[in-house]
Amino acid sequence: MAVAEALGTQTQKDTVNSALREVLETRRRALALARLRESAEEGAFDLELFEDKRNYRRTGPFHGR
Question: Angle at CA 58, nearest 5°, toward 51 and 46?
């Protein structure tokens, strides 16, 4: 079964459960993105603050500090 191979499952039950889980996760992400877009359209974010890089510093284990 191509779906089971793509999902890495062995049984039909696991395949169905994995497929349903992926559908739900995709739907949650799509709804979250829609809410984020709606908030942005309503002006919920201060874009000037995001664009101001004067106080931006890369820190952490992957940035050499």
Answer: 25
Inter-residue contact 15 to 3 (CB < 8 Å): yes
pTM over 0.70: no
pLDDT digits 0-9 by tens, 8-51: 999 999 999 999 999 999 999 999 999 999 999 999 988 888 78
Which residues, at least 6 apart from 59, have a Cβ–Cβ distance to it below 8 Å? 65
Contact at 8 Å (CB) between 45 and 39? yes
Determine how many CB atoms are found less than 10 A away from the CB of residue 7.
Answer: 17
b/e per residue, 9-26, with b = 16+ CB within 10 A?
A: beeeeebeebeeeeeeee
pLDDT one-digit tens code per residue, 51-65: 887 777 777 677 665
